[in-house]
Amino acid sequence: MSRLPPAMATRFSIGSCIKSKCLPLRPLQIRYSSSDAPAPPLLLKLRNDLKTAMRAKDTNRLNVVRGILNEVTNSSKTSSPIQTDMQLLSLLRKRAAASETARKEFKDAGRSDLIEKEDAQLHVLQEYAGGVETWNDEQIKEAVSTVIQDMKSSSEKKIVMGDVLKRLFAPGGDLDGKPVEKAKVSVAVKQLLS
């Protein structure tokens, strides 16, 4: 522990602080807990499967899971991080589409070894994408029709697709936080408005 030089000690002594009316010390409260939302269940499953694939030495699954987790980590550093299973599902579908494109190119080039590799990766991606439960078309149409009926009964002049979508996905709306694909919702809104 270091000591203050005598000149500084007299300058900052308790007596001088009382005379100059220093501010009193206050206890400092520090919160050590965070209010982050819990991770999506599929993301937790991917992290566990990474460890399982490492132990089993399943290189194909390991590469796919590492790639997905890498993209999730990279997206967490952007303005729109992946926080829900639906966002993770769209990432899985994007990777599956890229894998399909690569498979077609390998087929045109006559690379059967790479075709097999892409097929195996596609199988793993589809397995994870199938694990996410989403609302079916009937449930989506039911929610959309109730919102449209509410909008018609509130005597709005013209019902526009954008207004219906805003009301559906607004905080507290019928589809807010629900496992639905926005593309399917927009198709249902178009069908019910026409």
From TrEMBL:
Keywords: Mitochondrion. The keyword Mitochondrion applies. The keyword Oxidoreductase does not apply. Pfam families: YqeY (PF09424). GO terms for molecular function: carbon-nitrogen ligase activity, with glutamine as amido-N-donor. Gene3D superfamilies: Uncharacterised protein YqeY/AIM41 PF09424, N-terminal domain. One of its GO terms (cellular component) is mitochondrion. It is found in: Mitochondrion. InterPro entries: Asn/Gln_tRNA_amidoTrase-B-like, YqeY/Aim41, YqeY/Aim41_N. Belongs to the AIM41 family. This is Altered inheritance of mitochondria protein 41. The gene is AIM41.
